[in-house]
Structure formats: structure tokens, C-alpha cells
Amino acid sequence: MRSGCDQAQGNGGPSLMPGSLVILVLAVAVGIYLTYVMLHPECF
């Protein structure tokens, strides 16, 4: 568990946190989903 966190931090760099990257990806996915729902309300 510890080695995995150290490896992820080493690959991503000290400035970019892996957690914030996950939140960013989730935010983009939710934004795209909400946009799709607004454009196609008859499907939901």
C-alpha cells in the first residue's frame, strides 16, 4: 500500500496530487453526463 502511493507520487510529480486528478476526471465525466441529459431529455 505504501509502495503504491510512493510510486504514484513519483510518476505524477510532487505538484500534482493523484487524488485531485481523480476528482478532475470525475468532474469532467459528470459535466458531460449532465450536458447529455440536458440535450436529450426524452431519453431519461
Label this structure with key terms.
44 residues, mainly alpha, 2 helices
Number of strands: 0
Describe the largest sheet.
Answer: none
- Count of helix runs: 2
N-end to C-end Cα span: 41 Å
Q: Radius of gyration, rounded? A: 16 Å
Structural class: mainly alpha
Compressed to H and E, one letter per element, the order equals: HH
- Shape, per Cα inertia axes: rod-shaped
Percent of residues in beta strands? under 5%
Number of domains: 1
Describe the model.
The protein is built from two helices and no strands. It is mainly α. The protein has one domain. The longest helix is centred in the middle third of the chain and has 22 residues, at about 20-40. The chain starts with a helix and ends in a 5-residue tail after the last helix. The mean pLDDT is about 75.
Topology, element by element:
Elements: H1 2-12, H2 18-39
What is shown here, in short?
This protein has 44 residues and is mainly α.
